[in-house]
Specification:
12 helices, alpha/beta, 8-stranded parallel beta sheet, 11% strand
Length: 330
């Protein structure tokens, strides 16, 4: 566990991450669903060399809840060794756990957070727990969950407004406001997929909190910055980091013409990677990582997502090659 009190560590984390990009990284796996450790180490080395503010491990993009505890440990250790920047670990209820009650779901989340702390994570991002949505007061239950995670792990906490297709549920403005008022909470990640109004409402609720609003809006990345997000933690940055980083950098610099160009380029990539079936995006990001030379073909397997036609890969590669050609001509 962290030797620094979570509220103090949260303020430090806010200062370090504001205006930066954290890729939510993939987990290279073979056809059996086994983590390919050499591929992971090489991938981590490549991502660490990019202009990033940190990384997010165990997130939905990395299939964190599907991994065994031993594989989660291997993944976090590799990233902890690869980057000097903050490592944020997503925590929730592993798929191997079958909680019978909301309390058991929270217990499992707290246990996972403690494991992340022991392995050297700098913060934890709490998956929205579906079990809490059925409680008499879901907002109070969610706040209690985040409080326990921060208290028992000793780490700063990031909330996670995740769309329903990935197992999340809406965070109403009251929950956003009260969550960000917690001293140990560093911010909120938004991943509403295509729910512009929900995204905007959450950003408005966060105004004045002084906390991070991290966009994970892969299909609304540029707009979410214009609405008020001030950092990014995004699965679309698991490959082609520079495409995503250029949008954030130009917006932060006030280069509006550059922002429009960069946002348009990223949108073209998002259109072929974050599409129905949305759970296929992990495999599509792996395809992009293979194209970029970040991982080998043998490590580009996602056993937890849907099968996809090769025509989708062809479309993805065409966009990547077109974007690369345009950059070469610029």
């Amino acid at each position: 566990m962290s030797a620094t009190p979570a509220p103090l560590a949260a303020q430090t984390l806010i200062r370090r991450l504001r205006g930066t990009l954290l890729p939510a990284v993939i987990t290279p796996m073979d056809a059996r669903g086994v983590v390919d450790l050499p591929a992971l180490e090489s991938y981590a080395e490549h991502i660490a060399a990019q202009r990033i503010g940190g990384v997010a491990v165990w997130a939905h993009t990395g299939r964190g809840l599907h991994l065994t505890e031993a594989d989660r440990e291997r993944v976090l250790r590799v990233w902890r060794a690869a980057v000097d920047a903050p490592v944020v670990a997503a925590v929730g209820v592993p798929r191997s756990v079958r909680p019978g009650t909301a309390r058991e779901a929270v217990d499992a989340t707290v246990e996972m957070a403690g494991h992340a702390a022991d392995l050297g994570a700098d913060a934890v991002m709490v998956y929205p727990l579906a079990a809490l949505a059925d409680q008499p007061d879901p907002t109070a239950a969610a706040l209690d969950c985040h409080d326990r995670v921060a208290r028992e792990s000793g780490l700063p906490v990031i909330g996670f407004f995740l769309h329903g297709e990935a197992g999340g549920y809406p965070y109403p403005p009251r929950l956003v406001r009260e969550l960000l008022a917690r001293p140990a909470v560093a911010g909120l990640k938004l991943a509403t997929l295509d729910r512009a109004m929900a995204c905007q409402d959450a950003i408005r609720a966060a105004e004045g909190s002084g906390k991070l609003v991290l966009t994970g809006e892969d299909r609304m990345f540029g707009p979410s910055l214009m609405w008020g997000s001030d950092a990014a933690l995004a699965g679309i940055a698991a490959a082609r980091v520079g495409l995503t980083g250029a949008v954030l950098d130009t917006w932060t610099a006030g280069d509006h013409a550059g922002f429009v160009r960069a946002s348009g380029r990223l949108d073209r990539f998002a259109e072929v990677s974050f599409r129905a079936p949305i759970e296929g995006y992990v495999r599509r990001m792996m395809w992009a990582a293979v194209w970029e030379g970040l991982i080998p073909e043998s490590a580009a397997h996602d056993p937890y997502g849907p099968r996809l036609p090769l025509s989708e890969r062809d479309a993805l590669v065409r966009v990547l090659e077109s974007l690369a050609h345009e950059k070469d001509l610029a």
